[in-house]
UniProtKB/TrEMBL annotation:
<feature type="domain" description="Thioredoxin-like fold">
    <location>
        <begin position="35"/>
        <end position="215"/>
    </location>
</feature>
<dbReference type="Pfam" id="PF13462">
    <property type="entry name" value="Thioredoxin_4"/>
</dbReference>
<dbReference type="GO" id="GO:0016853">
    <property type="term" value="F:isomerase activity"/>
</dbReference>
<keyword id="KW-0413">Isomerase</keyword>
<feature type="signal peptide">
    <location>
        <begin position="1"/>
        <end position="19"/>
    </location>
</feature>
<keyword id="KW-0732">Signal</keyword>
<dbReference type="InterPro" id="IPR036249">
    <property type="entry name" value="Thioredoxin-like_sf"/>
</dbReference>
<protein>
    <submittedName>
        <fullName>Protein-disulfide isomerase</fullName>
    </submittedName>
</protein>
<dbReference type="InterPro" id="IPR012336">
    <property type="entry name" value="Thioredoxin-like_fold"/>
</dbReference>
Length: 224
């Protein structure tokens, strides 16, 4: 027995501690339907209202996505919630497609859409100028046509989806309803001034640059 106790004492320092969770790989769905990256119980909740046709949103995403993951989300202290604030039918189409594949694909799809925004918007503008699709077109027909005309279908196929999967995502009524619900909350309830717009723990930030947001996030984390 003494030998075993001595052996356990020797082995104790070499016990491997449980690995900390990688919160950058955790995506959950909030009650409002928005997707949340990071620890869902994080003490700081950072909300971004976004539009896929908004160049400022694309610029912010390019600046912020890496630093916010490594500096805040990975530590479990900040969770990032993305809420749609749709501005036009290209934006609505892109917002529906960003959700294709569920939580695990959302943030990758979203960032990729912003990365390809300039080319996609150029195609979308040309498509809209052609007047081939009236504003009164049925929603599902319009979404499929806009996705094809703006290059979104090809974009999603390049990301590993089939055309059938893309079209199925586009016409999914619960997804459409979620995007529209988030949009109504943004413009009609919250009354955001534009996109991107930000909240930290429910408080609006009159800011637009990553440097400004980063400072506020650090302050919020420090105060908790």
């Amino acid at each position: 027995m003494r030998f075993l106790l001595a052996l356990f004492a020797l082995l104790a320092p070499f016990t491997v501690a449980a690995a900390a969770p990688d919160w950058t790989q955790t995506v959950t769905r909030a009650p409002n339907g928005a997707y949340v990256l990071g620890n869902p119980k994080a003490k700081v909740r950072f909300v971004e209202y976004l539009s896929y046709s908004c160049p400022h949103c694309a610029h912010f995403t390019g600046e912020a996505s890496g630093p916010i993951r490594s500096g805040f989300v990975s530590k479990g202290t900040v969770a990032v919630e993305m809420r749609n604030a749709v501005r036009d039918r290209y934006d609505f189409t892109a917002a529906v497609l960003a959700r294709c594949g569920g939580p695990s694909r959302f943030f990758g799809n979203s960032e990729a859409l912003f990365g390809a925004q300039e080319a996609l918007i150029t195609k979308a503008t040309a498509f809209e100028a052609s007047n081939v699709l009236p504003e009164s077109a049925p929603v599902n027909d319009a979404l499929i046509a806009v996705a094809k005309g703006a290059g979104l279908t090809d974009f999603m196929v390049a990301r590993g989806y089939t055309v059938a999967q893309v079209n199925a995502c586009l016409i999914d009524k619960p997804t459409q309803a979620t995007v529209m619900g988030l949009t109504r909350e943004a413009w009609e309830v919250r009354k955001i001034p534009g996109t991107p717009a930000f909240l930290i723990n429910g408080q609006s930030l009159p800011l637009s640059t990553w440097a400004q947001v980063e400072e506020k996030l650090r302050s919020a984390v420090a105060q908790k």
